[in-house]
Amino acid sequence: MQEIYISTDIETDGPIPGPHSMLSLGAAAYTADKQLLATFSANLETLPGASAHPETAAWWATQPEAWAACRTRLEAPEVAMRRYADWIATLAGKPVFVGYPAGFDFLFVYWYLIRFTGKSPFSFSALDIKSYAMAVLGTDFRATTKRRMPSHWFDPLPHTHVALDDAIEQGAMFCNILQDTPARNNSKNTAHSGSAASRDEDREG
């Protein structure tokens, strides 16, 4: 069964879940060859007793359009997370969480999944795009920044701080990085050569 890369982006009102809330969740399901299979989006009600972190609230004050986008058509967290889990279950493949940075996005998504659905379709694993790029480029982690990445990794897609927009953009970037992975390319070439050899043998037989 093929892997399906679930590029997921979130917007929050603070650095950690519990004291603060996940406001919006967007996801884009990609195959390794960058076929966009499906998307998901939800805006969530804030958690009872939670509040915005002052620094995050100050940042949101500079993003009025993105703020307005994530505060419309709100759903209870338990409804949104069940929809998210059910959506993932409809995809014909093994789901892999992909984030940039995964350490932040997966922190919230995993917490919300366990809290409101009791389980995670990703287990407790997530793929971090920056870490993957570090390995492909052979750079130090801190030196692996977007401005040092090859321009062909970036499709002309918007980065708006609207969760679904950013999930689509980051998922496409991840797929572009996959195509530049030497080991994957070597594997494809070997498989292609093997298939060609098999066809030759079939003809000779």
Which fold name corresponds to the CATH topology?
Nucleotidyltransferase, domain 5
Q: Please report the distance between the alpha carbons of the first and last residues.
A: 32 Å
Number of helices: 7
Q: What is the percent of helical residues?
A: 40-55%
Q: Outline, from the CA principal axes?
A: globular
| Low-confidence runs | 190-205
Roughly what is the average pLDDT, rounded to an integer? 92
The run of helices and strands is EEEHHEHEHEHHH
Question: What structural category do the secondary elements indicate?
Answer: alpha/beta
CATH H-level name... which superfamily? Answer: Ribonuclease H-like superfamily/Ribonuclease H
Name the beta content range: 15-25%
Q: How many structural domains?
A: 1
Main sheet specs: 6 strands, mixed
Radius of gyration: 19 Å
Query: Could you tell me the number of beta strands?
Result: 6
Oligomer: single chain
Strand order of the largest sheet: 4-3-2-1-5-6
- CATH class, please? Alpha Beta
CATH-derived architecture? 2-Layer Sandwich
